[in-house]
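Let's practice the habit of predicting before peeking. Look at the sequence and jot down your guess about where helices and strands might fall. Then scroll down.
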Amino acid sequence: MKRFPILFLALLSCIALSAEEARKPNVIFILADDLGAHDLGCFGSTYYETPNIDRLSQRGARFTQAYAASPLCSPTRSSIMVGQYPARTGITAPVCHINPIYLTKELVKDGPKSRVLVANSVSRLKTEYFTLAEALKEAGYATAHFGKWHLGHNLKPADHYEPQDQGFDFDFPHTPNAAGPGGGYLAPWKFIKDPTITDDVGMHIEDRMSKQAAKYITAHKDKPFYVNYWAFSVHSPWNARADYIEHFKAKADPKNPQHNALYAAMVKSLDDGVGRILQAVDDAGIADNTIIVFYSDNGGYAYPPKKTDPEGYADIPATSNLPLRSGKASLYEGGTREPFILVWPGKVKKETTNDMLFQSTDFYPTLLTMTGLKPHADIKLDGHDQSKAFLGAPSPRDRVFCHFPHGSENQSEHMDGVYPGTYVRKGDWKLIRFYARNEDGSDRLELYDLKNDLGEKQNLAKEKPELTAELNGLITDFLKDTEAVLPKLNPAYGKVAATPKDPLMGWKNRNCDATVKDGIVTAKGKGPSPFLGVGANLTGPAKVTFRIRTATGGEGHIDLVPTTGGKETGIVAFPYSAKAGDWQEITVDLPRKEPATLMRLYLPHATEAAEIDWVELKAAGAKSRRWEF
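Done guessing? Here is the structure:
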């Protein structure tokens, strides 16, 4: 009988130990916004200061070949929450804050303004998906979302697109329609609508959010929880704490590709927030049972920020992703290669580096396995379960796809590679298909050997036609499987529409009569040097092609006319010759480098009628225009 209390206590101890062993691990998912692949000290930055994130990396593994599912934010965020490619969900652009709501995948309906018709992105994460948060909540997890959501907000009571509709018990500061911290990072915050969230003027939103997240972690330390800390940093607008800016201004080196003090200050505030979360985990005594993920939603903004507060930093690229090419919004490596840190206590070795392929779609099945769960059998997943690969097994992923059916010539003037396209990476080879990128409207293929050409400088598509065809076939199969929206050449691009008041579509007839009938302009001279003229606004070399028919032919010319103060100056003529008889196409090169306001097509005969079917003007660095009368 004397042994009974001892045995009873031993039994209670075993029960307690079994309960502790059975407790599911906590999950903290830290997602930075627009953070580049090399914007952390532990990923090679010698300018930015990230001691807390560096400390996090020492607790686990750094992954050097991790990819976002998109070069822009909302598509990647959706891939994390549902484990599907953006091409499949239709969320392919960061438009989940707009109204009205679009839920159908389709091409935009555009007139002659865009050379390529791009996708009209779905603007909400549909409620039919069973999200990662819902899966963990179903398993008994407390769930909370902090920071940027950008996957949809509700317009009416029947809508269910916000964090608390998609599996989260708690949402702070509840800004589901915010694409970024509009108005700035420092209090008072214009983008937060909750009047109860007030703080001292100048407080940084990451400080406020991380304090709230720390309180949540402390309050839920005795049961499993899933916390999204999805930072607003380092997305625009470009502003930061003044003392941090001054600190980095003093150490900026123009020879370092990363030397924007304002951006460095923004990274520092992100690191502060992460540090506060780590401290909360340590203080709660749950570090050994907490999985922590650190990731970014797309590549760093490797371009001048244009407008900054304070002024003085607008012309310095926000960051540099070198040696990776380009950055946010681009299909080159700088657009989708991400810094990935994973802490899995007792499983993933500390202070290690891993070069396995990983993509943001993989988080859904992987995190469920890591927490002892399985996805519902009826759920379609594009992501791979990488949990065993984290422990040393071969990765089930041997290729990465990215479909980005957006971008334009205008964007790519200052952002390299922001064209609609799709890429596949298989092994060390990467093929990009840019839609309708060639001059004839066909797709442009770019093949890169990432092992020997990480900066994607040498396109090997023509040198390796068999490999190019193989990888292009993989892209085609991927697009078919995901039922992706495919950009295509706009048949109306550059065509000028006629109106009853303007049948000549902006052309003016001088010293000639001009009429339009059945799509043909008939121009007949009635004075010296008859011509048709139109506004050209050329800034460099161009080429004009037209289809013409005359009875006897003759010599004509194209004039480029600059104007200064309303006066014509420095007119340059480019001759052409028209043959007699049937229709013919004539192309005239216009190699003039100086700007020209007007273009004139002088007729090949002073008095004889000439018929013109259409005219097309192509200029370097500008969209083509085509007049089909």
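How did you do? The first strand starts at residue 26 and ends at 32.
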